[in-house]
């Protein structure tokens, strides 16, 4: 049948298959049902990425840098200049290229802690197209052993279930480490949630000051002829209405105020606690950058002197953030594609073509080249290069 792949299939265990003893314990409450994500990723993405410049720039900076890394494909014997896997990665689908696909995948990992890639199989069963799926629409369906037996993709009221019980799984699930969840990854956005709230609140506070002549406006003191300081309800409502319509906002900046009898204006200035508010916002911005692993200097945050110069911060950004992420993701993609093709390959970033690591690369090549006690094969192994056959 054409729609047999939509039917729910139970987990098939091969004879003698080994499994973790804790799997049935993990699957006790979730077997055959959707394991829901513990955080509202939609709201967190809206406030931390679409509504916060520091979170937006951090995600874009990491995703674009990781997606732009040159990749090499090799096995234990050689590097491939041309290969079907390289062609698939370079042109994954008609609408995206390699950079667009990988940028979307890295961004999903940073925003939600989970990345999903779908493989569209050709007539021979090998992947013909790759598509990144939205993490907020995907759910894991665990089996009786605790491992996923299906992935459910929901859009509106329609759902599609991908069978994951076989060897060639149609969906590759890449997730970050989560110490308290067995099925979903932990996002840097979740770790920075409190700092994002502080930064967004500080921005709204600054916006409110701009709307009110960019300073605490002051106080209007009312003294009646009888010495009482209480206004009637109509008087109070009329005063508030005139203040909002004639003396607030950018278009009314500097407009003189006309006060009637009994009203006196007492201007106010910034208190020392108000002056510290901007420092709180800058500290929150540093915490957001810290959660994502981006040096604050690269985000233009003032007052940061952690690194001696911009070049050192740039090198640390690639070495500590971009390369570990790209290496882990490409290794997971290679293992997943190998399940379809049956060919053991390794797809990884080409460190020799990363400009930010040029200084480290030159120093390493000089050390290895000057080691006379090493053979050529040992030198190539130290540099991560495949072995050369004897006839070359």
Automatic annotation (TrEMBL):
This is Phage portal protein.
């Amino acid at each position: 049948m054409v729609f047999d792949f939509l039917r729910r299939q139970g987990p098939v265990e091969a004879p003698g298959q080994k499994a973790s003893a804790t799997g049935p314990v993990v699957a006790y409450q979730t077997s055959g049902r959707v394991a829901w994500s513990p955080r509202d990723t939609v709201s967190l993405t809206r406030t931390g990425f679409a509504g916060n410049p520091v979170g937006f720039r951090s995600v874009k900076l990491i995703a674009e840098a990781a997606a732009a890394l040159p990749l090499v494909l090799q096995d234990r014997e050689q590097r491939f200049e041309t290969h079907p896997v390289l062609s698939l990665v370079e042109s994954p689908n008609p609408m995206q290229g390699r950079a667009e696909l990988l940028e979307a995948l890295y961004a999903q990992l940073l925003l939600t802690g989970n990345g999903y890639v779908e493989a569209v199989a050709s007539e021979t069963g090998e992947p013909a197209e790759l598509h990144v799926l939205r993490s907020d629409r995907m759910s894991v369906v665990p089996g009786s052993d605790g491992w996923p037996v299906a992935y459910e993709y929901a859009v509106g009221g329609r759902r599609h279930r991908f069978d994951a019980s076989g060897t060639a799984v149609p969906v590759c699930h890449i997730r970050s480490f989560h110490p308290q969840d067995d099925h979903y990854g932990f996002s840097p956005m979740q770790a920075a949630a409190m700092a994002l709230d502080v930064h967004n609140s500080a921005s709204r506070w600054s916006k409110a000051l701009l709307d009110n002549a960019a300073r605490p406006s002051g106080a209007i003191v009312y003294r009646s002829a009888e010495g009482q300081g209480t206004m009637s309800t109509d008087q109070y409502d009329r005063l508030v209405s005139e203040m909002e319509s004639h003396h607030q906002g950018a278009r009314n900046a500097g407009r003189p105020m006309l006060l009637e009898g009994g009203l006196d204006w007492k201007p106010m200035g910034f208190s020392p606690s108000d002056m510290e508010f901007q420092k709180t916002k800058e500290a929150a911005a540093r915490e957001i950058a810290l959660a994502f692993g981006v040096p604050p200097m690269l985000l233009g945050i003032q007052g940061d002197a952690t690194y001696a110069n911009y070049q050192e911060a740039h090198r640390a950004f690639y070495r500590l953030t971009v390369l570990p992420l790209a290496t882990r993701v490409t290794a997971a993609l290679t293992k997943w594609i190998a399940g379809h093709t049956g060919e053991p390959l390794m797809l990884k970033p080409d460190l020799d073509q990363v400009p930010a690591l040029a200084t480290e690369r030159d120093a390493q090549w000089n050390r290895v080249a000057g080691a006379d006690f090493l053979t050529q094969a040992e030198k190539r192994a130290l540099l991560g290069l495949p072995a050369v056959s004897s006839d070359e």
